[in-house]
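Notes from the 1:1 (GR / supervisor)

We went over the backlog. Supervisor wanted to see one worked example end to end before approving the batch request, so GR pasted a single chain during the call. The sequence is below; no edits were made to it. Supervisor asked that the structure be written out right there so they could see what the output format looks like.
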Amino acid sequence: MGHSGGPSCIEGQAEPWNPNLTELTATYHWPQNRHPTCTGLQFPIPTFTGRSRTKYWDFIHAFNRYLCNTSMPELHKQHTLLQACTGEDLKMALESCERLGPERGYERVLALLTERFRIERAYAEEWIMALQERPPISTGDGNGLRKLADALWGCISYLENWDMLSKLESWTCIRNIVVRLPGTLQEQCADKSHSYNENHGSYPGIRWLREFVQKQVGRTHSTLFKGRGEQ
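Structure output shown during the call:
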């Protein structure tokens, strides 16, 4: 159902950035399950500050879902995307695209965002850094071990897809991950690593470490359930 008068902008807060926006919104029929000013279910517009490459893909997928199955004019898509980019520096870089017109402007905003944040090497380095800076895991913390195993799996999968797994195979990187483990597991990991070296002539890599952590997750859960059964 159309809204008489229409919102002054896509979020119903800021002043119209284009003289034709009010006229367009007055005649545009917003899908009731999509636009935040419609009656019924309300879906907030996802936002992106531009501070992290790792969050870019989450944002762009959420934004695409927000626009999914709508017939929203390009004018509104461009303005909505600009409103969703909340970082001050990011907005300054993107607002110049408004001068290109609705269709070209929207495409240019997407292109600039992709160019800035879809840099696989930088994205990989940020993910690897986050993996090495995870909080230390306490003894018996099965949930912490599970999260580390999941993070290792995700990072390994991503780097393999881009042929950059070698970035994660350095001794320094593996050591920085191992020291996040509880002290007893660090010792076990070191002992098994030395045994592996004696048998294979080289130290194990990141996939081996991921399997080691995953096995500890299973053992921690087994110990937990066994303890509960004995109570």
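Supervisor's comment: The chain has two domains: 21-117, 120-225.
Batch request approved.
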